[in-house]
Amino acid sequence: MVLNLALPPMRCPKCHNLDDKVIDSRTAREGAAIRRRRECLACSFRFTTYEEIEQMEMVVVKRNGGREPFSREKLLKGLVKACEKRAVPLGTLEQAADDIVAELEANAEREFDSRSVGVRVMEKLHAIDPVAYVRYASVYRQFQDVGEFIEAIHSMEQFHPRSERQPELFN
Known about the structure:
- The chain is of the alpha+beta class.
- 38% of the residues lie in helices and 19% in strands.
- Strand 4 and strand 5 (67-69) form a beta hairpin.
């Protein structure tokens, strides 16, 4: 691998010196970013930086009409919260977030309603983990009673047939 040592320096997170050297450089996030390992020339502390293409800012129109910048971190946080205490690897959730962002970026519009994001999140969670899907749907659709939970669970049976080892929950 050929290293480009003429890259601009980054401030060392330990001693704040601007003199560093790039030790390793490779692609990350399926080619969407470059990961660089750096070493501070003053204190020899090693740290990692990421370089990625700056995207045009996307704006989410909330239910109440308010607008806010789209945040991949907020999207990922919602996915992680829905999958809390579930055996879902973080990498799977990061990939789902990346897929949703890619779908939104593919759209020519830079402003979209929160409903379109929520629908995409529910589709991804539906495929990843049924319990996480119901958790997210209960908040997103603002379930008001137990009947709505039961309805959501029954609707999932169309897509995920019950295993013979799984006990019957609702008759």
